[in-house]
Amino acid sequence: MKITLFALGAGLILLTALSLVRSPQWWIRAADFPRLQIAIALAAVALGFALVYDTGSLIDAAFAVALLASISYQSLRIFPYTRLAARQTMDGEAGDGSRTIRILISNVLMENRRADDLIARVRETDPDLILAVETNDWWDEQLRVLDRDYPHSVKRPQGNHYGMHLFSRLEMDPVNIRFLMEDDIPSVRAELKLRSGERIVFFGIHPRPPQMDQDTEERDAEILVVGREVRECERPAIVAGDLNDVAWSDTTRLFQRISGMLDPRRGRGMFSTFHAAYPFLRWPLDHVFHDDSFTLVRLQRLRSIGSDHYPVFIELRHQPSAEYDQEAPEPDGEDIEEAQEQIREGREA
User: Fold this and answer.
1) Least C-beta-crowded within 10 Å: which of 38, 189, 239, 304?
2) Which helix (H) or strand (E) holds 225?
3) Cβ atoms of 29 and 213 closer than 8 Å
């Protein structure tokens, strides 16, 4: 039993150590994703090891310290996304509907054929804005039923799992499909007019994930390019989509500092959206960030639509006075240099 615990613990400690390495290689960055699962497994090994611990063994003592250090580190990274942590976004009241925006985002899974389930979630939540990714020609045909209720749209169906559709009840002008890093990976930037007459900017993105033939230079660069655009934007902004990155990664945290955006999940829960079919292998890949002029009315992970991702619904209230009560992340000189370097590496890749 002790040898088994040593082997399991050593593997988990190694995964924890790998996640400390600043490298874009896919097999290193993959260690960012299952932090909760690693923390739980480390705790289970530690409990088992306590039963066989030899107080006179230096090896046992060193192993116990490594286990506890790994548990502590993993817990610190995921703690902000628990209900025990302080909330980064203030609660807002629905109140005046002219100042609220309701958004549904969904990675539909290109091969999924349960379009009716997505339409049902739209009817249930009644969003102002719908961002669907992984849409191809089949999904383009199925989603045409939304055109009647959503007169403003931009559509880019693709057969490579990176198609994108944006539907809006709110006026969108201008709206552009862009290719920030790769010529087959679209993103969208749209200027929206709230019912109050105020104008905001919406960014929808879906960069490639880390995988065996794909390191993370392009993904990280695309996320940070958008973060830099948000920082330079003169209007209130929202960024949403399947970032193929977790909330607690170095890249996402750097994005928040570069952009100054808030994460409404902090202090409320992880809202893990992937993988929908495997409850014990699930983490937050689908995100909505906003600047400090918004407060949160509602955030909800919706029921399955047959995709490997759950849809997410959020209702935000534009409340400019909140800027005085919410603390937006700020970059330092090292953050700016690091972002510039990662953007350069992404463009070179």
Assistant:
1) 304
2) helix 217-232
3) no
> What is the pTM for the complete model shown?
0.95
Spatial CB neighbours of 86, under 8 Å, sequence gap ≥ 6: 266, 267
Instruction: Tokens for 8, please give them.
Output: 């399991």
pLDDT band at 42; cut points 50, 70, 90? very high
Task: Please give the structure tokens belonging to residue 274.
Answer: 């992937």
- For residue 95, pLDDT beyond 80: no
Give residue 85's identity as a one-letter amino acid code: A
Spell out the residues 6+ positions from residue 324 whose beta carbon is closer than 8 angstroms to its own: none
Q: Are 167 and 191 in contact (CB under 8 A)?
A: no
Which residues 6+ apart lie within 8 Å of 107 measured at CB? 132, 133, 134, 206, 242, 273, 274, 285, 286, 307, 308, 309
Strands (E), 44-151: 100-107, 129-133
Which DSSP string do the residues of 164-205 spell out, in sequence order?
EEEEESSEEEEEEEE-SS-TT--EEEEEEE-TTS-EEEEEEE
- Which residues, listed in sequence order, are joined to residue 275 by a DSSP beta bridge? none
Closest by Cα among 80, 113, 123 to 302: 123
pLDDT of residue 12: 97
b/e 56-80 (16+ beta carbons within 10 angstroms → b): eeeebeebbebbeebbebbeebbeb
Q: Are 252 and 223 in contact (CB under 8 A)?
A: yes
